[in-house]
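Run folding on both entries below.
>entry_1
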Amino acid sequence: MAIDFSNTFALMQTLEKSKAPASFLLDTFFPVTPTPSVQNYIAVEYRKGGRRLAPFVVKGARGVNLDRTGSKVDIYQPPTMAASRVINPEDIETRGFGENIYSTMTPAERARVLQAKDLRELQDSIINRKNKMAADILTTGKTVIKGYADDGKEVITDTVAFDWTQEAKVAKSWADAGATIFDDIKAASEQIQESAGEVPTIMICGKNVADYILNNDQIMKWLAIPSASNLSLMGLQPRITSPQVMRIGMIQSLNLEVYSYAETYTDDDGTVKPFLDPNDVIIAIPGRGRQLHAAVTLLNDSTKSFETFASAYVPQYSAGNNQLALTVYSRCVLAPEFVDDWAVIHTTTTA
């Protein structure tokens, strides 16, 4: 069935049914997507861990009040992401990529094929932006929002920050074969266990870190033990699981599944950069972060009135000046459930 590009609700349903691209950090650490809010502002609540002790009281006394610490609420106006594509007559007068050399397709048919492709790619660009936001939060505890006007010039900068402090340097660079890599990983895991009260189960490495691990004297000494029953410490069996993602193995003694992540993105200035620094390591409790979406308000060209849509992705079709334009909007803030859920190791930065 053909897509009705003039109907925003139909386009929203199309995006909801389509398969989103793989965004490893977003999918792993921020998979929870509550129902989008109809409000313009979103309350972002996150907590710190910690174990409180019940107070002793004298006989006959009532309970001693424990203040509710560790929870913080910040109010944000979620930034608007808007990715757009325009089709001009020149774009559809000749055959498109992949079209037969002697094609009978009309320009109108080409326009619909091109818009369907654009719809998918525009949503993908927003998901890639969310993945970049996830990377920033996981490695720095904050994400910087840069807003652009229609001319592409920067107009405003804002920061969404969380009270996160679990950023670690190492005593000896992991690039050095004599580094105590296992001890550093164990210390980060124990720090998370102490502050969050749970055992982290996943370790994400920049693309250089796998080589550091496989060339490390301490780890190779343990792996050289003849019988696995003598020391079931870890098993390293590198295997590519998806593009730019490799499962390195399992550190059984710490219950950590280890992955290498080398996916890149194209920055606003055209520079290709990695989502995760090649020398950084994230150790974390996965699956608890949230994608908080706010409503998008758009002008309906046909009714000349404003309409509000509560959805993660809101596409809008418009026509004018002999052009067809398709824009996909999204207003989102990523928020962790607990800021103690993860730690970062800068493997080549010494203390």
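>entry_2
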Amino acid sequence: MIVGITHDEDGILNVVEKYRGKISAGYAPGEGPNKANHPVAAGFFRILKETTKTDKIGTKVITSKQWVLNAPMQDLLGKSAGNAPETPRIVEIISLYKTPQEMWDSCLCMFNDDGLACKSHGKGTPAKQLIYDAAGERQWAFREFDGIPGCIANKCPDYIAKKCKPHGNMKCFPSIDLAPNPYRFETTSVNTIVGIESALSKLWHLLAAAHTVKSLESGKDIPFEGFFGMKLFLVHKKIKSGGRDVFITDLLPSKEFTQIVMEPIKRGILKNVSAAKLAGGAGSVSLLSDAAQKLIQSSEVLDEFAEDADLSAPPSEEEIVDQAAEALTEK
């Protein structure tokens, strides 16, 4: 341990994450059919790997890293996607993290030729900016606006100029290629960021509720593993936003997640109902919000939907929930 280099002053390791690959839903500038100087949506998931590119300019050799399609993994992803192997819109992932904070991060950030140039977590939070000192050394400094430290979000000139954008990053382990190092799924879609954070929050509370019931049933404290080992789905689809079609990515629970979480919650609900019926008894008949119930319902037919639906036209959340409701009615 070297405090200040390998560890911080509290002895906590400065983790350098090494990614096995990237899960993308778009094309980088100049990549494939994208001739623009900015990323564009592909409309389906792509599995990428990092490679090193060497260019010779005169006598100088320039080495750079770039992300390219991982053809073998893309083929596996296509085969796992059911009816749309050329345009897979579902990725099954396994969480090897306990909390949402370990697997997901979102921020406002700005990039330039040197990489990350400014980053914050939104209005009122510290904004760190990359600057150069008199000796030309790079260093990070806290940014101020009119003498006041902190990010001003959508009032920032860089945000207004669209140099600074929302950014979300999920560390995940696709079941088609489980390995010690995670893949990363990155997005600049506000709809996707809000949706994923909402889903993680709802699912986290469901996990906590199920754990509470299990602890009460066992009569002792049992370890809470959170999301660890849970199977989830990244689902890419088209929605209407601002009167136009846009692609977003949702995070949905799997059938296995539903069974693990909902069975103890159902037992807890039944116990509460029984207690409420007793003279002088008190109980609650619902442990879930309407939004959480819809999220759980959508997962109950997700596997069947992925196999049977025409994913060339991505489903809306309403269509998934409607099919889930019909399946539950049939049961």
